[in-house]
Amino acid sequence: MPGDEETTGAPAPLPTRRDPQAGRRPEDIAVGAVVFGARLGVRAGRVAIIPFRVAGRMVGTSRVERATGALGSDGKTASAQGRALVETAVDRTLAGPLPEAVAEKLVEHHVVERIVADVMQQIDLDALVTEVLANERTREQFERALANPALERLAVSAVDSRLTGEVADRLLSSPQVRAALARQTTSMAGALVGTVRDRLRQLDARLLPRESPDPDLHYGGIATRALAITIDALLAQLAVLVLGGVIALVASLAGGLGSNWLVDAGLGIGWFIVVAAYFVFFWTLAGETPGMILMRLHVTDARGELPSFPRSAVRFVGLILSIIPLFAGFLPVLFDARRRGLADFLAGTTVRAEH
């Protein structure tokens, strides 16, 4: 109408031509329904919270804060009481028979052993130890620990400890430790004997500078042979003392041997027999006595074989004859090319040196 245009002051929109099918599709109808429902829900929510907003303004902020503080205090008190109750329950449980019962069950069912067995099966202990020992850092740490003066002080203070003494006794009683100590002692003794033997052979070479007539053979000189016969004399004398002690002990049961020329003669003959048996026994069966073994000397006949029993007996007689005139029977060793003494000339033997 013309009156409406004058009232609004704006021309009315021109009518547009609409599609009669627009807005009638099912998809458009569904979207329109969703939008309408959302707007209706927002308006309903605003209306619903009006009572709460009014109640909040009536109560005031201070009351809310006091109520909140009261609730927090009650919650804190309840938490402390609950903690106290839990602690009391735990104390009563630990003070009761439950821990012992659990421990008995663990032992009864071998729980710890099973766990350890499972762990050990999963771990290659030998490989782990080998890897640790082969580690360069492990070796450095071990050397650093040995170089630490505190370790020495600890060892000195531990000597007076009874526990350390017991541990040391157990370690020393171990077969492995004894075997290691025996090997160490043997190696040290062997090194000492080897050093002495080498020095004596150098002295032999100086006393007889000429070369041996047999390039492939080496003969024992006077220095090495002197030390060998000294060791053998001591061992033979020890055998005489042991045998004499046994005889004296047996004779004491019968009233003793007494003292007369017959007993003295018997003791002298016994001494000669024991010493002779010592040398003849070793020369015949092995071609060397214990003293000769240390000096690496060997007695052979002219064919390079072990001397027979008669030859060994003749050699012992020659040894006694060499000693009686102030060891003069050993002087030919200094001049003979094969370094033979009086006993060797009588028995047809030589003393060879092993290198």
In short:
The protein has 16 helices and two strands. The chain has helices spanning 2-8, 26-48, 50-59, 61-95, 98-108, 111-122, 125-134, 136-146, 149-159, 162-172, 175-207, 222-253, 261-285, 290-295, 309-323, 342-347; strands at residues 297-300, 350-353.
Radius of gyration: 56 Å
- What is the quaternary state of this protein? single chain
Helix-residue proportion: over 70%
- State the separation between the terminal residues, measured CA to CA: 147 Å
Mean of residue pLDDT values: 75
* Low-pLDDT runs: 1-10, 14-18
Number of helical regions: 16
Can you list the strand order of the major beta sheet?
Answer: 1-2
Q: Which percent band covers the strand fraction? A: under 5%
